[in-house]
């Protein structure tokens, strides 16, 4: 039977199942196959904080959305074209996002009376006409898998668990994905359990064969590789890119990396990743608490290391006093905040941009801290190096504001040439800088206002630093009123004077009257929305802030040259508040705090409304 | 590279030594010392300044890290590297420094409030990790810098500004706490006994790993004479139990001579010397890998102040944290070679376009 092959330019697939069904793994593998095939892609994992929520319930649903295309794309997509629903809960939890005509691949084996009742279905939606708006493919994934694995030396439970690989095989067939890497992956993953490895590979192949032979799938799809700039690519998540960026910063600065960290969602993967790379001279210290994590990083920085601490909002709150100590002792330190929904514990696995004001102002005293925010998962690599550059050059703690969406989302990344990475090397002070061979630890570089950095072990430069106010120059304890005023202003002037690139504006025809501004992870959805608006004939300019403190020097000019400035934020208007105060610009906020990234369609409508309104 | 074994007991093996003779003066900074007149901190500072030259270390490789409190001003008065940090966090900051710089001799200066109240968590974790630090805990059983509130080592019923009807909480015994955290080196000494203080510092410095030294320190403003019984010639010899490794534990003079023996209940007890056979007297073994007896000895002064052990309760060798960290780094490098950034970025599935 020859099957029809249809060409598509892009597809959005969502794998959804119970949190124990292996949906994240399935999504990861499909992503790897897709990356290898050469499509552009963007992913959105979405999972509960509970490790294993009660089976078959709505709160236990875990999903993984993947958008891939033959052209460059900016978001994981608004609405899936295909939903793989491993049980009734997965169907019910995701149906609302599914546009009319989308495909549903449902595992009929799990649509039992009991499972249906658990989520409030009176009847079986696969058997009545309630899903008539969609194209339903009912596939008994579990029983097909178990049958395919008859004769394997594994338990029935293990056979059933391989159903996600059967589903992956089926989807891989449906979208013409390369399969070799998944086979190799399974062999490596279950290297110590060869029977399980064989069974999973067999399930994967059975899924593929099922697609090819069964009549419920008459069409398969091709999405041609995307034409991206030439280079070597890999797929990378935000947390992984951030970890690699920190290692690169260590290599490029010539300083050993010291990470002090306490596990916290969604930042822990950075700790996990860095702890694998001891060969790079990386020290990872899992501290007793958040405060010790940043304290140890600061202590290491005092000793001449590239000190880093990684956390999320609740951890930043705990670290505040130590960050203030780094501000006043003027030591380099990188504080990574992978923002999550708050306040308090909030929703640990969901994303937000609500820590901006805390990063800027969440300390006692006048305590200015530079803030850098990556725009995309792969940008976390460059943003980490940029944070290190600022920290080392200006001897200051730097806040690096990632978020849950960037941390767990992934996209193809053109691997940079090492020679193209910035040189951020540091020279420690080794000679006295004062009269008569004295060392003045707070004598500043006239250009950067940075103080010298003499590390313990340097003869003749023994000195003391601390949290008490320091006399300008000598660093000795000082309660002198004028000295304090001077030091407060010097510390502020140092941060204000940090050189950051100008704000780029994308305004293709130069005649837009509306500027849509963003910062951090909203870059993708905003850029995708801007494309839609322009495609429909609308005029809109776009700019994206990567440096939140100090702001680029031309920020005020950019804002002032448009009639309207729209600023979507996943908070209640934190950057808008700052821009209004600083530039007296009547910024129009668009604020949703749902723990989810914006959708391109949603933002396109908002932009269009602003364009259309007077 | 030195192996874990060979570093044990050699606290300063990796710290560069000086060829130049040093004196007390070399360790005095130019800063005016600003403790209250009569404060016990002066005696400790003088003892430390006159002790440091005998270590023979390069001055630039010595670092003093402190938290907050009267004692935490200490680093400013020493001409070494110093970091006066924030309340309770000195052990955490020193952990990062000592873990990444084995060539430094790192000293933490802290007090009973700093170490046992606000920074209690960091203290016990530094002790269990065995970070290469010398922690000097100045215990005056009161909050001095905030002007006289009770501290976590104040006796129950302490009348202070914040406890006008007496404090309610049972105090920590710092030695018991440290032994409970299985610290490798635990000692107690007194500010006024320079010879004993320096002998303990000597052993602490030689110990590789965390050494905790509790120093009874008099606050003459808010808690004067807290340790007077240990200093008054009329009483001190009868209540001070000097622990010396390998020696039977006896103390007191004349009719008041006493000895320590094992009690039938699993602890230790004080008995009249005349009522006990020599063979029954407990011989102090600071190197016993089991901390139980050291813990029992630490309970002798609790809750009464009738007999107070001072000296080294425990001194055992186990690998220090920085050493274990380095060994993992070396093992990883030996296994797969030194890290290469390009290889790292290109690891895993990649594809080429164009």
Would you give an account of this structure?
- The complex is a heterodimer of chains A (614) and B (354).
- Helices cover 36% and strands 20% of the residues of chain A.
- By secondary structure, chain A is of the alpha/beta class.
- Chain A folds into 4 domains: 219 residues, 3-Layer(aba) Sandwich (Pyruvate-ferredoxin Oxidoreductase, domain 3), CATH 3.40.920.10; 187 residues, Thiamin diphosphate (ThDP)-binding fold, Pyr/PP domains (Rossmann fold, 3-Layer(aba) Sandwich); 72 residues, no CATH class; 108 residues, Rossmann fold (3-Layer(aba) Sandwich), CATH 3.40.50.
- In chain A, α12 links the parallel β12 and β13.
- Chain B has 354 residues and is α/β, with parallel strands linked by helices.
- In chain B, the strands form 2 sheets. In chain B, strands 2-1-3-4-6-5-11-7 form an 8-stranded mixed sheet, with helices on both faces. Chain B has a 3-stranded antiparallel sheet with strand order 8-9-10.
- The longest helix of chain B has 16 residues.
- Chain B starts with a helix and ends with a strand.
- At the A-B interface, α1, β9, α9, α11 and α12 of A face β2, α3, α5, α11 and α12 of B.
State the order of secondary-structure elements of chain B, H for helix, E for strand: HHEEHEHHEHEHEHHEEEEHEHHE
Strand order of the largest sheet of chain A: 11-10-12-13-15-14-21
What is the quaternary state of this protein? Answer: heterodimer
CATH-level-4 superfamily name of the largest domain in chain A: Pyruvate-ferredoxin oxidoreductase, PFOR, domain III
Relative strand content of chain A: 15-25%
Q: What is the CATH top level name of the largest domain in chain A?
A: Alpha Beta
Strand content of chain B: 15-25%
Question: What profile does the largest beta sheet of chain B have?
Answer: 8 strands, mixed
Q: What is the alpha-carbon Rg of chain A in Å?
A: 27 Å
Structural class of chain A: alpha/beta
**From the 3D coordinates, which CATH architecture of the largest domain in chain A would you assign?**
3-Layer(aba) Sandwich
Mean pLDDT figure of chain B:
94
How many distinct helices of chain A? 20
Structural class estimated from helices and strands of chain B: alpha/beta
Number of helices of chain B: 12
Label the overall shape of chain A: globular
Low-confidence stretches of chain A: none
